Amino acid sequence: MAYSKTDITKALETITAPGEGKSLVESEAIKNIVTFEKEIIVDVTIANPSLQAKKKVEVEIMKAIHQHVDQKADVKVNVTSETKNEPFKPEKPKVPGIKNIIAIASGKGGVGKSTITSNMAISLQKMGFKVGILDADVYGPSTHLMFDVANARPLSIEIDGRSKMQPVESYGVKILSLGFFTDANQAVIWRGAMASKALNQMIFDAHWGELDFLLIDLPPGTGDIHLSIVQAVPITGAVIVSTPQNIALADAKKGVAMFQQENINVPVLGIVENMSYFTPAELPDNKYYIFGKDGAKNLAEDIDTAFLGEVPLVQSIREAGDVGHPVALQENTPLENAFAEITKNTLSELVKRNDDLPPTEVVRITTMSGCSS
Ligand SMILES: Nc1ncnc2c1ncn2[C@@H]1O[C@H](COP(=O)(O)OP(=O)(O)OP(=O)(O)O)[C@@H](O)[C@H]1O
Ligand SMILES: [Mg+2]
C-alpha cells in the first residue's frame, strides 16, 4: 500500500519555508508528491539557490516524513530553486521529430520485455513506420545483442553546430542502448537521477531524425529508477509484458499501478502475455500451459485494460534473440503474424488514447503500408 498524500502533506505543514515565515505547503513550495509502495518522492521548489539551503530543506522533509508518516519510508526529495515570478513548469518536454514514445515494462524480470520490444519494432518497420528503440535497461541492456550490433558504437555528428549521437541502425530500426556505453563485464551502479539523465541525453542529444515510434525497453522492477525514468521522459503510452504466472502477474499489476499514479499519468495501452503455452514440434496440436492459462488475459480484464495478444514459448524465439536476428523478420510464419497482431492491437489502443489525451501526435493505423497480415 502506498502512503496517503494527505498524511504526507500534514507532515510537510510542520516545516517552515526558508525566509517565508509560512509552512512549505502554505507557500506553495511543494510541487509534486508521488507515492509508490514504500517510496515517497517530493518535488520542492525554494527561492534560495544555494546548495546549503537545498540540503537543509531536503533533510527537514525527510525528518518530518519519518517522524509523522513512517520511520521506514524510503523518501527522495528533489529540490529546485526558482525566482518567484518564474512559473513552475511540470510538463514534460516534447521531442522534436518523435511522434510517439512507447515504454515496454513488466515489473518482473526475464518475462520477455526486450524480446517483445525488438519484435514489435520489426513489425512496425515492416508496416512502413519509422522506428527507434532506446534500451533503458540499466541492469542488463540487451537490444544491441538482439539486433547483432554488440560491437557497434554510435557516431557523433554535427547538427546545427551541435554535436549529436547518431543511433546505430540494424534491420531498418534505429537503436541507442546503454549497452553501447557500458562495459559488459563491469557492474554499473545507477541512481534514478543518473539513469534519467542518461536517457534524456539519448533522447534529446541524439539525432533520431523523424520517428513514428520510439520504443523504450525499460529495466525490470518498479522502484526509484523507474519512477525517475517515467517522470523524465514524455511517454505516450506503456505496454506491460507478463507471463501467465501469478508471481509475474502480481508484478505486472504493480507496473500498471506505477504508470497510473497521479502525476505520472502515463496511459497503459494494454498487456501482452508472453510464454503463454508451449507446443513441441513433434506434437503440433498440443498446447502445454506451463506457466498457467490466460493469466494476463484475466488480469487485463480485472484492471480494465486491453489484452494486446499472446506469444507462445518457442525455442526459435530464444535462438533468434541470441543470434541477433529477431524472429519477426522471418516471413510468413505464425510468429511473424503473432507479433504483427500484437503491434496492430497496440496501435489501435494508442489511437484511442491519443484521441482522449492530446499531448503527443497521433499516428493513424490507416497510414500502415506493407502490413503482412
Ligand atoms: N516467447 C518466448 N519463447 C522462448 N524464449 C523466450 C520467449 N520470450 C523470451 N524468451 C527468452 O527468454 C529470455 C528473457 O527474455 P527477455 O530478455 O526478452 O526478457 P526481459 O523481460 O527483457 O528480461 P530483463 O528483465 O532481464 O530485461 C531471453 O533469452 C529470450 O530469448
Ligand atoms: Mg530486457
Automatic annotation (TrEMBL):
<feature type="domain" description="MIP18 family-like">
    <location>
        <begin position="5"/>
        <end position="79"/>
    </location>
</feature>
<feature type="binding site">
    <location>
        <begin position="107"/>
        <end position="114"/>
    </location>
    <ligand>
        <name>ATP</name>
    </ligand>
</feature>
<dbReference type="GO" id="GO:0016887">
    <property type="term" value="F:ATP hydrolysis activity"/>
</dbReference>
<dbReference type="GO" id="GO:0051539">
    <property type="term" value="F:4 iron, 4 sulfur cluster binding"/>
</dbReference>
<keyword id="KW-0408">Iron</keyword>
<dbReference type="InterPro" id="IPR019591">
    <property type="entry name" value="Mrp/NBP35_ATP-bd"/>
</dbReference>
<dbReference type="InterPro" id="IPR000808">
    <property type="entry name" value="Mrp-like_CS"/>
</dbReference>
<protein>
    <recommendedName>
        <fullName>Iron-sulfur cluster carrier protein</fullName>
    </recommendedName>
</protein>
<keyword id="KW-0479">Metal-binding</keyword>
<comment type="function">
    <text>Binds and transfers iron-sulfur (Fe-S) clusters to target apoproteins. Can hydrolyze ATP.</text>
</comment>
<dbReference type="InterPro" id="IPR027417">
    <property type="entry name" value="P-loop_NTPase"/>
</dbReference>
<comment type="subunit">
    <text>Homodimer.</text>
</comment>
<keyword id="KW-0411">Iron-sulfur</keyword>
<dbReference type="GO" id="GO:0016226">
    <property type="term" value="P:iron-sulfur cluster assembly"/>
</dbReference>
<dbReference type="InterPro" id="IPR034904">
    <property type="entry name" value="FSCA_dom_sf"/>
</dbReference>
<keyword id="KW-0378">Hydrolase</keyword>
<dbReference type="InterPro" id="IPR033756">
    <property type="entry name" value="YlxH/NBP35"/>
</dbReference>
<dbReference type="GO" id="GO:0005524">
    <property type="term" value="F:ATP binding"/>
</dbReference>
<comment type="similarity">
    <text>In the N-terminal section; belongs to the MIP18 family.</text>
</comment>
<dbReference type="GO" id="GO:0046872">
    <property type="term" value="F:metal ion binding"/>
</dbReference>
<keyword id="KW-0547">Nucleotide-binding</keyword>
<keyword id="KW-0067">ATP-binding</keyword>
<dbReference type="Pfam" id="PF10609">
    <property type="entry name" value="ParA"/>
</dbReference>
<dbReference type="InterPro" id="IPR002744">
    <property type="entry name" value="MIP18-like"/>
</dbReference>
<comment type="similarity">
    <text>Belongs to the Mrp/NBP35 ATP-binding proteins family.</text>
</comment>
<dbReference type="Pfam" id="PF01883">
    <property type="entry name" value="FeS_assembly_P"/>
</dbReference>
<dbReference type="InterPro" id="IPR044304">
    <property type="entry name" value="NUBPL-like"/>
</dbReference>
<dbReference type="GO" id="GO:0140663">
    <property type="term" value="F:ATP-dependent FeS chaperone activity"/>
</dbReference>
